[in-house]
Design goal:
heterotrimer, A alpha+beta (331), B alpha+beta (781), C alpha+beta (162), A: 331 residues, alpha+beta, Uridine Diphospho-n-acetylenolpyruvylglucosamine Reductase, domain 3, five-stranded antiparallel sheet, 20% strand, globular, C: alpha+beta, DNA polymerase, domain 1, five-stranded mixed sheet, 5 helices
Chain lengths: 331, 781, 162
């Protein structure tokens, strides 16, 4: 497969990058998501603005009681950073669960967050679309996953965003002459056709996470077909604060790969508050978690099964967050 | 000369360094001056009449050098099997009709890939859509859409039954009536892809001397030459297929593939080299996947577990053409009857046309599916009888010297020894009992153990039926070995060099191999019917032996000694009782040339399996000899099942193998490891998902072959039976195909052992597994 | 969109300085295989999932099918052709040959380079470290067992390394 033709800019400052973004260009980070989409003809930008030379976006730094991670920080750096592993186990584990290690050397924090939503019927080549007409997300008017579906059920499959959302991270979004800070979940539109709320010229330049209290721990669990390479089929990030007696004071639980955006589980914290893990009402937890998500047959495992797995993976994430250091890696 | 120098040793493969350094040239690496990029236009429809094709715009696109459609071809059909009963049924470029998505309609050659792609999009094809059928059992109905209206019918009134194998012996009705227990079960195996890492690729160059030179990623060059010559309507002598390294095949690169024909046709049209390399997507949706199979088995046993009768029906969805479908229904019979006795048996196999992709054999060609079914049912029967699965198998296993219903002898068949030894090594009986208890515990992760067994043929009579080899002594006493064998990764070049070096009593490094060139190397049986080490190996042995005889004769004359008194070692020939009288190979060669009017030393050897058997067995009736050498093996798998998610993990597979004399034990281990991994993919994760003829997971991302983190620990036990020991070290048997079966069957049985869930469909997906776990939990409560 | 113009870039490949004219829409894999005829680097899937096209970029394994060629400007690329010194195999290559880690050989270049990056960073990896490092490189022939044996043999644990 050949890439479609495009012009490439490789600015070395953010200001240059913002100016170049103005004519409808696409930002290129590590490219591990965008390049295959372009080979498939699903993204056909006439101009790409590579951010790889914008060195100021590559850093993990302590800043005002928190940690700032530049968008062009590679997953390899994230996955070997002590600041991250010691404070944000969920993020650390999420980074280490992305694809396979060689991908980490190129893939970036910003790129992973802004990864396009996926579907078995969308992530296909031009030749494939001759056999089955283009779907809603590919610009057509059918949904192959849900017959007569008018809504796109593509699945957000990034690993970092659920972890960042559970950790309460904020994203820095910038464009020429403007900058805003939004919560991770606010980046998402819940619309599979265009999963992000970013304006055309905006770039996510980094994320900021407050350092957690000592009694707070987090974890990320991911179910996938194979223990490497694959995207999540269900994932869950939990951030739990407990008192000295092991009773849960606060919990934030975010699900990944359940729909077009990561999903915060409302009420999960309240359910467990004041209880130890043993005392917690796990049955109620199972009923609550994933209740509202609609999962369809558009990934390698059926939607009904993935939905069934949501509370199981979520429970594993919560238990791991209550274990030492976020528990072992991988679900 | 009793001591073996090389044969039986784990010599590192000869092509290791060239592959490790990236210098090995695969077909995808072939580049010739002026070479064009070729692309194939494929049908987007599963079944349609081609009303018209207009290639005008494509041909006029700047940079396009040639466009071909059926109108440029001689419209000669071909088939994996071509017999009066099963005549060739497939055009190499579609004529008037397409019968599956991805069928080849036209080819384009252009100065680069982009131009070729663009040209494809300019070809205008008008289709008239026809009703299609995708399920083999639906296609068997008399009223199903007819896929080949003009083909001879093998089973009227069923219009889409393209092949039928039927055989029986004894009286199954009576056997069932006399049985203590009769079980009937139906098993389903998915459609899989081979997953070779190098995509299908071909470079064809029709040069100005009128010769078509072809480099192609294949499993044997002589079959390709024959099929290209036939379909292109040119003599064999006008086609030369040359060696390239092959990046994996596993059955998926046999037979003629249409890009090979199209590249050739394009090159014949423009006299420039044309290269076609499949995208990974094309590999999954246009190259041939493996055979799916539905197996229904009815088995009757006595109270003591003796099998009294079996009725087996196998249904194969062959896809839009015969492909290897008419073969797999024959082979499935063989894999059902070879390892265990069944005094009364009735077998029917159906190969059914559908509008799915055409199939190729895949490693094991039917065995993994048939053994999955049979061995699963064995364990179900044993469970009902309260018998240990090992005892049940030992009760029925074929014994050394048994004669099969087709007249073959299993000779010194080692299966019972394999079963005993693998059971002993794994403490099977105790752990199987422990597994049963595991079912009752509340543990989330349950452990189990299971056994699976197979017998497999080694070499059979399929074109070109035999192998020849030539061994030339060079002036410096080194050796050049000429063989038509093509190493597809299994290591046959290394094995053949070991054999030549053994017979010539010289270092393996001194043997240079020239392989797989239809013009300069002798004919070879090919890397596909598990007969290469046996058939080609014996041809090389004979060739090297003849060269050695000539060399010794020359030496004897020079040394004034009797040939019987000579000893050869390290490229020197000594008189045994007075070793100071010696001559180097180089001088012996020179002496032969000087004394015998220029005779250099060349040995030739030929070998055909089953010399007295005229032809292959009947695919219709199974009558006729099948093979000389039945290998066998027993495998035990240990698994863990996560009962919350349904995920199955294979922890370890132990293999006891009776593969004859292992010429290179390290390569044998490599074959077993690879098959355990392929079996793992088969039983747990791999499935080509097709919706209305369209493959929806045509990528390595969505077609789930195992990754390193799923690696299965392996252990091996050599079971070398008497006939195959030293002194009979060229009596080799199959080792490259059948182990997939044992892995598949043993994992299915281990899953049952751990959980009580009997899966009758592969792959055992976590979602199906979980549904079954829940179902039996419900039944219990 | 018409073809973008070529750009002249410098990069180091296997210790040699190269100056090449390349279009922005070409991948590093295409540059290596088609323009420079360094065909040791293989294409297996073209979407980044199989690892056959792995090369080292400044010492780290990357998918050359997912990288634009121009992004390798002023970087150091190591391909499989750059590992052996003259005719002497690199110890990892030798271990792959000796321990049966190569069958068809198509995944071997990517696998060996991935192993090299691992051992450069961690000369004494555990089996789990090895399995993890190569988990993005598919091999269809070996089942990975002999590959792990070879990498261990080439590591300090196997008395391979330095």
């Amino acid at each position: 497969m050949r890439l479609p033709h495009f012009d490439l800019h490789q600015p070395s400052t953010l200001e240059e990058a913002f100016s170049l973004m103005e004519g409808g260009a696409l930002a290129l980070a590590g490219g591990t998501d965008l390049i295959p989409l372009m080979k498939y003809g699903l993204e056909v930008p006439s101009t790409l603005v590579s951010l790889k030379r914008v060195d100021c976006l590559k850093s993990i730094a302590r800043r005002d009681g928190g940690v700032f991670i530049g968008a062009m920080t590679s997953l390899a750096e994230l996955a070997s950073s002590r600041i991250i592993s010691e404070n944000f186990a969920a993020l650390f584990q999420a980074a280490r669960s992305v694809a396979a290690p060689p991908i980490w050397n190129v893939a970036t924090v910003g790129g992973n967050i802004c990864q396009d939503s996926r579907c078995l019927y969308y992530n296909q080549s031009r030749a494939w679309r001759l056999e089955k007409p283009a779907c809603l997300k590919a610009g057509g008017n059918v949904c192959h996953a849900v017959p007569k579906g008018k809504k796109c059920f593509s699945v957000y499959s990034g690993d970092l965003a659920p972890a960042l959302a559970a950790l309460g991270a904020m994203a820095r979004v910038e464009k020429k002459g403007g900058s805003r800070s939004v919560s991770i979940l606010e980046l998402f539109s819940s619309n599979g056709l265009r999963p992000f709320t970013l304006e055309k010229e905006e770039i996510v330049t980094g994320v900021e996470i407050a350092l957690p209290a000592k009694s707070t721990n987090s974890s990320y669990r991911k179910m996938r077909a194979r223990p490497s390479v694959d995207y999540p089929l269900v994932s869950a990030a939990a951030c739990v604060t407990r008192d000295g007696g092991g009773k849960i004071e606060k919990m934030r639980l975010v699900l990944g790969a359940v729909g077009p955006s990561p999903a915060l589980v409302y009420g999960a914290g309240r359910l467990f508050e004041g209880n130890t893990l043993e005392e917690a009402d796990w049955e109620a937890f199972s009923e609550l978690v994933g209740k509202d998500v609609r999962m369809v047959d558009n990934l390698s495992y059926p939607g009904s099964y993935r939905k069934e797995m949501v509370p199981i993976i979520a429970a594993r994430a919560v238990r791991a967050a209550c274990g030492p250091g976020g528990g072992e890696e991988n679900a | 000369m009793d001591e073996l120098l090389h044969v039986g040793r784990s010599i590192p493969r000869k092509d290791g360094p060239i592959k490790a350094t990236g210098r090995a040239k695969y077909t995808v690496d072939v580049a010739l001056p002026g070479m064009l990029a070729g692309k194939v236009l494929r049908s987007p429809h599963p079944h349609a009449r081609i009303v018209s094709i207009d290639t005008g715009k494509a041909a006029r696109l700047p940079g396009v050098r040639a466009v071909v459609t059926a109108e440029d071809s001689l419209k000669i059909k071909h088939g994996f099997v071509e017999t009066p009963r099963y005549p060739a049924d497939q055009y190499p470029i579609a004529v008037d009709r397409v019968r599956h998505v991805g069928e080849d309609i036209a080819g384009v050659a252009a100065i680069d890939e982009e131009t070729a792609e663009e040209a494809l999009s300019l070809i205008e094809v008008e289709y008239e859509l026809l009703p299609a059928v995708f399920d083999p059992e639906e296609a068997m109905r008399p009223d199903a859409p007819e896929i080949h209206p003009n083909n001879p019918k093998v089973d009227e009134p069923y219009r889409n039954i393209g092949g039928k194998t039927a055989t029986s012996w004894g009286d199954t009705e009576r056997a069932f009536a006399e049985s203590y227990l009769v079980r009937e079960d139906k098993f389903y195996c998915q459609m899989r892809a081979h997953g070779y890492m190098e995509p299908q690729a071909t470079v064809a160059h029709f040069d100005y001397s009128g010769k078509l030179n072809v480099w192609t990623s294949s499993m044997g060059v002589f079959l390709k030459r024959a099929k290209l010559a036939k379909t292109l309507g040119i003599p064999h002598s006008s086609v030369r297929v040359l060696k390239t390294y092959v990046g994996g095949a596993f059955g998926g690169k046999i037979d003629l593939f249409h890009h090979e024909y199209i590249a050739s046709l394009l090159s014949m049209k423009c006299h420039l080299p044309v290269k076609i390399v499949y995208s990974r997507e094309e590999v999954f949706k246009a190259a041939r996947p493996a055979q799916p199979l539905i197996v229904r088995i009815k088995t009757g046993v006595a109270k003591d577990g003796e099998i009294l009768g079996q009725e087996i029906e196998a249904i194969n969805d062959s896809g839009a053409y015969h492909g290897s479908g008419v073969v797999v229904i024959f082979l499935a019979w063989g894999f059902a009857m070879a390892p265990y006795r069944a005094p009364n048996l009735k077998y029917e196999g159906y190969s059914v046309y559908t509008n799915n992709l055409v199939r190729a054999p895949q490693r094991g060609h039917g065995a993994p599916k048939m053994r999955f079914a049979v061995e699963s049912q064995f364990d179900m029967i044993a469970e009902e009888l309260g018998m240990d699965p090992v005892e049940f198998r030992l009760r029925n296993v074929r014994k050394p010297g048994d004669i099969l219903p087709n007249g073959d002898s299993v000779k010194k068949f080692g299966l019972s020894e394999c079963i005993e030894r693998v059971a002993e090594r794994t403490d099977f009986r105790n752990r199987h009992e422990a597994g049963k208890r595991e079912r009752e515990t509340g543990a989330t992760v349950k452990r189990g153990i299971g056994i699976g067994t197979t017998a497999y043929f080694g070499g059979s009579l399929i074109y070109p039926n035999s192998s020849s080899a030539i061994v030339k002594l060079n002036d410096d006493g080194s050796v050049s070995l000429l063989t038509g064998a093509l190493d597809i990764g299994q290591g046959c070049e290394t094995i053949l060099c070991q054999i030549a070096a053994e017979e010539l009593r010289m270092p393996v490094e001194e043997v240079q191999i020239y392989a797989a060139d239809t013009e300069t190397t002798p004919v070879d049986i090919g890397s596909w019917i598990s007969g290469l080490t046996y058939v080609t190996g014996n041809a090389v042995k004979k060739a090297a032996g003849q060269a050695m005889e000539k060399l010794l004769a020359a030496a004897a004359r020079e040394l004034d000694a009797d040939v019987e008194d000579l000893v050869a070692r390290d490229k020197q020939i000594f008189v045994g009782h007075s070793p100071e009288r010696k001559i180097s190979y180089a001088r012996a060669v020179a002496a032969s040339i000087a004394r015998d009017r220029g005779d250099s030393i060349i040995g030739e050897g030929h070998f055909r399996t089953m010399k007295d058997v005229p032809t292959h067995p009947s695919l219709a009736s199974t009558k006729g000899r099948w093979t000389e050498n039945y290998s066998s093996y027993a495998q035990v798998a240990e698994v863990e099942v996560d009962t919350e998610t349904g995920a199955v993990k294979i922890v370890k597979v132990t293999t006891a193998h009776d593969c004859g004399f292992p010429v290179n034990p390290a390569l044998v281990e490599g074959q077993i490891d690879g098959q355990v991994s392929m079996g793992q993919g088969h039983i747990l994760s791999e499935e080509l998902r097709v919706e209305n003829g369209c493959v929806i997971n045509p990528s390595f991302l969505e077609y789930k072959i195992p990754c390193s983190l799923e690696m299965v620990e392996t252990d091996y036990i050599d079971v070398i039976t008497e006939e195959y020991k030293r002194g009979h070290h060229y009596n080799t048997k199959e080792v490259g195909e059948g182990y997939v079966s044992g892995t598949v069957a043993s994992v299915a049985n281990a899953v049952f052992n751990a959980t009580g869930v009997r899966m009758k469909k592969t792959p055992i997906n976590p979602y199906d597994m979980l549904a079954e776990l829940k179902r039996i939990r419900k039944e219990v409560s | 969109m018409k073809k973008p113009g070529k750009r002249l870039i410098s990069l180091q490949i296997n210790g040699m300085e190269y100056e090449v004219a390349v279009r922005s829409d070409r991948t590093l894999l295409e540059l290596l295989r088609e323009d420079l005829m360094l065909t040791g680097t293989k294409e297996g899937c073209d979407d980044g999932s199989c690892g056959s096209c792995t090369v080292l970029l400044d010492g780290s394994p990357v998918r050359s099918c997912l990288l634009l060629a121009v992004e390798a400007e002023n970087r150091e690329v190591t391909t499989i052709e750059g590992l052996a010194e003259n005719e002497k195999l690199h110890p990892i290559q030798q271990a792959f040959v000796d321990h049966g880690a190569i069958q068809c050989g198509y995944c071997s270049p990517g696998m060996i380079l991935t192993a090299k990056a691992l051992l450069d960073e961690n000369p004494a990896p555990s089996e789990q470290d090895i399995l993890h490092a190569i988990s993005g490189n598919f091999c269809r022939c070996t089942g990975y067992n002999k590959i792990v044996t070879a990498i261990r043999a080439a590591s300090r644990n196997g008395k391979g390394g330095d």
